[in-house]
Predict the 3D structure of the following.
Amino acid sequence: MKINSISTLTSDERYKFYHEDDVDIVKDLVSEVHLLNTGEILKKEYRIKDVTGNYIWFQHSVTVFQKESKHSPLLTINVFEDISDRKLTEEKFKQNKEEIEFLYQTGKLLAGTLDLYEIYDRMHTLAGKIADITDLIVTSFNSKDNLIRYKYL
């Protein structure tokens, strides 16, 4: 779709530029602006498709600067901030947090059990979450020293 001006687009055409999971957020923003008093700030985060078809995360802050009537903003100030890097960092943090929680739970298990087969099973599961272990095999188990030896092929 070639665009000469965004002002010529219908509402439905504009919503095609937003990520499908975020369309309701944008619609809420549009309706909530009318409820703001002068000087109040409303912030929403959503994704917009760029010219290459990739999505960019934005934080959209809107302030009603002047109201025409009780329900209609006459003048608003809109600020758009690219927060893609922050969202990427948040996602990595979430993944790291899940891995750390798994390590913590595994450590609690290790501290409370002497069942080496259960320990092996949990550690193997953990290794599978952190790295590709398709080429990992157990080469030996020394019951005297309670050691499990691994080898990558």
The helical segments are 11-15, 23-33, 84-112, 116-130. The longest helix spans residues 84-112.
